[in-house]
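Protein of interest.
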Amino acid sequence: MKKEDFLKTISGEDEAVILRLFDRLVLAEKTGKTVYSKEFYTPGVWSKVEDLGNALAVKVISEGIFEEAERRMLAFYTDGDVSMPITVICITNKSKFHTLQHKDYLGAMMSLGIKREKIGDLVVDNSKGYCAVCDDIATYLISNLTAIGHCPCEVSMVTDYDKLPSYNFEEKIVLTTSMRADCVVSSVTGLSRSRSVDILKAGKVLINYNEIREKDFEVTIPSTLTIRGYGKFKVSDVVGNSGSGRLKILLKKFV
């Protein structure tokens, strides 16, 4: 595949990031060996690359370890087993007096100079944060992440993936007149359509981690919807129609 076609397929993303991914694809095609992305990507990237399918000269697969993982690493290969260079770490909050949130665990890792792309999904379960990271930073985190704010912490490597926690969701059905961004945002937040257009224009809405400002942007199924001030959601499915003809959407809110 030509570079221009690859960039066009994954439009709207950081071009430098996509070019690095293209280089990995070309390397796999030239050598016939399995090549890994060495970074995690949001659904706006990995899902589009997987959709290329037969257009590529090699096979492609994504992996994020967690069930329904949002951020995933990509591998380009021809045959054989694929073993992603991913390690799962467990960060244990040793403080009995402070509860840590998702942003606290993530912020502590990034404060060590680690780029967000090297960190996959992070799931908080009671006093522990479980996180998928690139192999090449796992040992560094285990040795150097000793505190989160004023909370001492301990980092260990997870070996039994069957016992990993899952994301917690609150599920509900919302009604919308269409899958346009302004309609979906209005249904999710309970705001009027005009107010929903305002927060779209203000850059407060992300769909599959891309900032969306156009009110007529079509939300596809499934999508990850982030609305600043309201939370992060999975727009999972259209499960039917109401008596008035509006769409019934299955919505999962991350909690």
About this structure: The mean pLDDT is 93. DSSP finds seven helices and 14 strands in the chain. The chain has three domains: 3-77, 86-163, 169-254. Residues 242 and 248 are 7 Å apart (CA to CA).
